[in-house]
Amino acid sequence: MRLDIVIPAHNEEHRIDRMLTAYRAGCPHPGTRFHVALDHCTDGTAEIVRGHQRADRRIELHEYPKLGKGGVIAETFRRSDADLVGFVDADGATPPAELLRLADVAGRADGAIASRHHPASVLPASRPLSRRLTSAGFAFGVRRLLGLPYRDTQCGAKVLRGDVARDIVAHTTSQDLLFDVDLLVTARDLGHRVVEVPTVWVDQEGSRVDPVADTRRMGASLLRLWAASLRRRVREVAGAA
């Protein structure tokens, strides 16, 4: 079974080498491909990835204009023809073994997502309070507004069956940090079953999350996703009538 792992990256020259080294060693199967999707990188990330390409033919480099994290993931999903396709953040917070565990679960469902808020998950005790509160508050808002059952929609590790992924991104519109929620809302509206799985997660320095600015921006985007989901369900009911 072939697995495509999409790694979205924006100016990750300080972390991408370590991340690719770990994933190449931790995911040795020849049917696993690594698609590094660069979102308007202006640093040395591409050259570092090309160095890994010379050593491992499983690595593919995609260079995009400024599409946003969600935009480069969706575009790379559309290009994939693998049995399973997923994405993982370039910071290395999700160990390779955890992503492979998601792939195993996704192969028996429609998809699987890692959850930092699952009771069985293993997280560092020192995770900053501001990030914990922001994450928990956002998850609560997602459950209340969109009716999603998940404890954690934003953990950067998700795997779907290839046909399911391509079906979903044919309908998603978000190109920013809300892509994760858009993906899950669309999956639900289309009737796909995505399972939440506990994970081991290692907090990484250098987070680009701004708790205040991102919460405001994502709150407005949530309302747009709610409206899009409502329109989709209304069309489905009208079509069935």
Automatic annotation (TrEMBL):
Per its UniProt record, what PANTHER family does this chain match? DOLICHYL-PHOSPHATE BETA-GLUCOSYLTRANSFERASE (PTHR10859:SF91), GLYCOSYL TRANSFERASE (PTHR10859)
Keyword field contains Oxidoreductase? no
GO molecular function terms here? undecaprenyl-phosphate mannosyltransferase activity
Is Transferase included in the keywords of this UniProt record? yes
Q: What is this protein called?
A: Undecaprenyl-phosphate mannosyltransferase
Q: What EC number(s) does its UniProt record assign?
A: 2.4.1.54
Pfam name, any one: Glycos_transf_2
Glycosyltransferase 2-like domain: from which residue to which, for each copy? 5-165
Q: Which terms are listed as keywords in the entry?
A: Glycosyltransferase, Transferase
